[in-house]
Structures are given as structure tokens and as C-alpha cells.
């Protein structure tokens, strides 16, 4: 979505096209919109109020501003407004073939009555109903073997912020001013043949900001080193727009838990799970007739706080014991990004006997400083076909396809197929944006926008400057003054000039260039690194790379923090490289890179005084003869059952439930341009994450390798193992905590790591301590090296606490590690660590 920075142009366009939404307000023959604001007696908006049609499962919740939106058929209706701590309000209204507005004031309850048991046995009948629903879960979890249906998804996000009102005539301390909206909708078909699914988007309408992951400045050191982040991460939609793709989250409450990483890092426990009676309290509130069936409306409240639970209402069909509808909220403590999350589901009968989803409605919000994000996602399922015949190989690891023509649908097309009435703000926004699209895409407007972006501001000088040419689809980014500073460089302070250039072509092709120049004032030396790549097969991630660098290289790229800054880890080197990467078929990638490297010791380098004082003897340079190396790297990576989405001219990889296997081969080639290297090294790596429901999740990572030939191998080409820091807890899936100094080998080795995160499942059961929301972890690691028959083993346990600064989540931990090895006796030590949440992959590095 373009941000209209030219206020005069935007005001003109808004005035000109503001009347257009009225032309598109097509009134649905079956439903009209009842809207309004719910407040208390002090005129304060009430969020999360349940609004429903009496004696029915038709219900919604008010958002953080107290607004509600309820679709109703024409005629007399009885509407109920209910919230904890307030008197229930019942209002009769008549819908006369038009949209209605009804504002409601709720009064505070004087006292809260004790829960009244209805049955003569002294126990609420809701418990017996829930027991029957639990027993019946199996037949409703997968009601048919296969089906297809029409699928409509609408996601919208309002962004508001609190702004000081400087008006003298209306001196309010604060007022809410809307800044921006995001909107995405899609329409197509959804196919299911358990456990396989596929979504085909026939129409797609995207007016949203793009998101590429957590960004940050680099100051020459990364605490979470060597992380497996995507090299060329595709931009995604705003992460606060929830479930824009059907495969993003599955809310099937017939399972014991719902594992939805984009919503919560902890599995959510269903109110009708096998152990639900230990987690929830139930109360039968109503018993009414709807569509010829008696419905039990049951209030669900958490019984404990040591698990991610729901609260709200679940509607169970009498005698059948299946879910008719539900209106539930997630405990905010367990939400990853959102401050509040509400889900509404309603089921329908297909072929008079099969219960299938009719629609899902998600209402969510997030406060961030003075900004509030109000989100809503609506999903409609219609025109079911039960047990259709699918062609052979129709289902594979491709979860969704967006057709090339999906983006070309007209506003009139969308008006004919939308199953709901959009809110007034949504209609105004999308029709204004659609109507001015031709103007926004014109060369004159693009030049105007480019001139605004290319206008240098003081904060850009500090953090980074961008330049763009929208017509030629090219952009340049230069680091600002702050990230250009490197006080811990080789020989002392070094200043960097770093940037990127990107040129996009039609059908997804692009060129990307990275450059880095850095100058050391102490040694008066200029170094540089230049690389460029061309993406020539976008859907296969096929990219060719070229690189030249004159730099200070490292002996061990995954070194302890102390040794990272020590001169003993650095060498001078020049590199000439050429490579190519490509996905041969889904899940299997090949990366080949050849390079010619000249390496020399750092003789005659002036050391900074602080470096000598900090590292002492470790600050001496590595000693070896100048060497020429011709090297070949071949890496084959296989992600078992790699799932993905296909969009026009690109493919988006998704997470896999199965291990990732990587086979690496490194060859030292003798004789080429006086290359003295002559070795063959092969390494096999396997890693995976295993989720164990409420018991947490386990991660494991195993490396094994050997040198089949080590006739001539420089120290820099040995296999290195990260040395340990005195008090810092490094990534336990890649390193050891009590290994001591870094080790290296040109022989066989085996390295294995295991980590289990309990996600608070233990301490959350302990009174008082559970209020701290601590996370327990434990794990182990082993290292076996053929040299001197070296063996090292360690185990550890610790506590972690998650914090948030604005949108960045991080966790700090305290751990106790015990180890034993060939060169040391049994010993233990306390360590401290920090890890940052990767918002692109929705995961921690460990």
C-alpha cells in the first residue's frame, strides 16, 4: 500500500471519490448490518461485550473502541448485550430492509451473585453435556473423508494513535485519530482430502503494508551468531493481519490442543479436550431452539492459569453433542503479538446430516505505545461438495495457489461475490484506493512520490538513507552514521560505508548488489567487499552469485565472544567467487560455490591499546606462510515434505513438520593458480523440532563429518568448534557451554545437541511462582573427535523470561551447566544468555 505523502493530492482525491462507496453499498437480500457503540454510564467505550440475537448462536464481540457489527435478517429482532460485571441488556429492534445503528449503555452490577446449581444433584448440567461432547469428538473431528467448498477471506486492520489536541476551543487532553487501514480479501476454492489440503485463490485484493521481518542495525557483532535465517526472505503481508491464508491456522476444537505458532507459542487447550474437566469450569446459561434443534449455551471459564486456555461460550447441540457455534477469547498472557484475540465459529449441516464450518470470525487488537491496531478476519465457507473425486497427484506439498489473473478482478466483481456487508470504513478505504489506482500508478505521481522518499532527513543520516526510482523499479540503501561505526575492528576503530542496490524486472526477476568499504584509521588501510546476484528462475530460487573481497577474514566464523575480537582469529585475505543455487525440485536445493582465496598472516598490523589490555597473549596474530587456495563448496539441502504457497511469479516456502537434512562437501583443489590445498571434507547435518503439546517442544541438531583426504590442509580449513565464554550462554543447538578454548580437527567428529523447552508447564503449577511466567529449559550436548580420542559431554537446565520492547520480543535466561571431558574433570557453572525472536519465522533461535 502506498502512503500518500502529498497532502494536497490526497485531499483532492478523497474529496473527488468520497461519494463512490455509496454507489457500491449493495444491500444483501438476506442480511443487514446493525452497528453501534457500547459504553458504560461514564460514556467510556466497553470492549469485548458479547452481542447476540436472543435464542440463537448469532453473536459477535465489541472491539476495543466498543464498536460492534452484527448482520441480521429483516424483521423484528431481540438483541442481547452481555458483559462480565454489567447488567445484561435486552433490546428489541426492527430491521426494515436497511442498515441500522444502535448505541447502548450498560450499567454496572451492584453485586455479583454466587453461581446457582440447576440440577437436583447439586452440579451444573453443563458438565454432563461437556462429557458427552468429549465422548463424541472422534466422529466430528473428521466428519467426511474429503470435500470441497467455496472460500472467502477478508482481513482488515485499522491503525490508530493517541495524539495531543492543541485546539484551544476544544481543549481535550487526548483524542483518537485514525492514521491508516490495511485490507486483504480473497475468493476461491478450498479442497480437502484428509490430511491433504489445497486452496486456489481465483481473486485476490491486497491493499496492505508489506513486512519483511525484524530489522535492526549491525554494530559488528551478533550475539546469536550463525543463525539459519532466510538469505532472500520474501516480503509478506503485515503480520498483524491474521489468517489471510487458510493454512495459516487450524481452529479445530475437536482436537485436544490447537498448535498455532502465529498466535501463541504455547498450544491452546480446547474446552472439549480429553482433559478439559481439569482445566475448565462450565455453566449452562441457556437452552433454546434454533433451526429445529435444541442448543445448550455453556459459559466456559478457566480453572487454572498454568496453560493457554479460553473463556467465553460454546454452543452444543443436544442429543448429537456436536459444536453448533462458539465465541471464545484466548488468555492474553499467552498471546505472541496480540493484546486480545476473540474467535467466533459457526457450523452448518450439509446434506442434512454432516456438520461443517459455516464461517469463522476473528477480532483482535494490539496496543503499541500510542498506537493501537484493530484487526478483524472473516472467513466464509459455502457450497460444500462432499467426497468429490480428485485427479491423481492433485494434492501435494503446495498448500495454496494464487492464479495469475487473481489480481485483475474489478470492484463490480467483488461486489457480486462478497458474502458479507463490509464496514463503512472498509468500503470507503478500498473504493478510494481502487478509484485512484490509475493516478497512483502514473509516471508523474511516481516521480512525485520518489522525490518525497529521496528527500534526505536527519534521522536517515543517522540510521540509513534510501533512494528509489519507482518507474525503473530500482532502489539504493546506504547505512547511516550509527551502524557505520565499528569500534572493535581489526587494529582499532574502523568506519564503514555499506549499502545495497536492487533492480526488479517483470515476472519476478531481479538483480541485487551488496557493497562494503571500511577504513581503519590506526593502520590507514582500506578494505572492501562486493557481491552481486541475479535471480533468473524465481519459482526455483535459482540465483547466480559473483563476489570479490579484500578483507580481514577469520579463522573461525563461529567463535566465542572473547576470541571474536582477538587478533589471533583474523587473517588477511582476498576472495574471488562464483556460485549458483537452485531448487531442483520441491524441498531439494543445490548450492555450488567456487572461490579462489589468497591468505596471509597479519604482519606489521598496529594493535589498539584496549585490545592488548583486554586479550593479552590471545591478541597475537596467527602464524602461517602466505597461501593460495582453490576451493569448491557443494551443499545439498533437503527439507522433507517442504510445504509452500505459489503466487504469481514466485514461490513462498513454509515450515515443515519433518527434519531438514544437509549434506556439505568442501574440496581443496591443488595446482590451480598455485593452490596448495588438497583435501576432501564431507559433513552431514540433520535437525528438527518436535512439538509435544502442553509438555513443550524439543529441538535437536546433529553434525557428523570427516576428511577423506587431508594431504594439504591449512589451519583455516579445519573443522572448528566454538569455544566457550566465561558467563555467556551461547546457542546450545550449535555450541557447547563448557568446552573451553575453541577446538579444531582435520579428522572425524560427531557433534550432537538436544534442547527441550517446557514452556512453563512445570512452574506454572506452583503457587506464587506461576505469576512470574518463567519458562523452564533443559538439554544436553556431546562432542566426539578422533584426535586423541577426545570426548566431551554436558547437561544443563535453566529458567527463561520473555520481555518485549515495542515489537521486538527477546528472552533472557539463567542456566546451570555441568560437563565432563577428556581434558577436564566434572565441573559446573552458572551462565546467562539472551535470545531474540525471529518474527519472520515465528521462532526463537533456541
Number of domains: 5
Task: Determine the mean pLDDT.
Answer: 82
Counting H and I runs of at least 4 residues, what is the number of helices? Answer: 12
Assign an overall shape: globular
Largest sheet: 18 strands, antiparallel
Structural class: mainly beta
Number of strands: 45
- What portion of residues is helical? 10-25%
Which strand-content bin applies to the residues? Answer: over 45%
Instruction: Please give the alpha-carbon distance between the first and last residues.
Output: 34 Å
Radius of gyration: 31 Å
Name the poorly predicted regions. Answer: 1-29, 111-120, 164-179, 212-235
Question: How does the SSE layout of this entry go?
Answer:
Layout lengths: L6 H11 L2 H4 L8 E8 L10 E4 L5 E3 L5 E6 L2 E8 L6 E7 L4 E2 L2 E2 L20 H10 L1 H5 L4 E18 L11 E19 L2 E12 L2 E2 L24 E2 L19 E2 L9 E2 L10 E11 L2 E10 L7 E8 L5 E8 L9 E11 L3 E15 L2 E16 L11 E5 L8 H7 L6 H12 L1 H4 L2 H11 L4 H6 E6 L4 E6 L1 H4 E5 L2 E13 L5 E11 L4 E13 L4 E13 L6 H4 L5 E16 L2 E13 L8 H7 L11 E13 L4 E4 L2 E4 L6 E9 L9 E14 L5 E16 L6 E3 L21 E3 L3 E9 L17 E11 L4 E16 L2 E14 L2 E13 L10
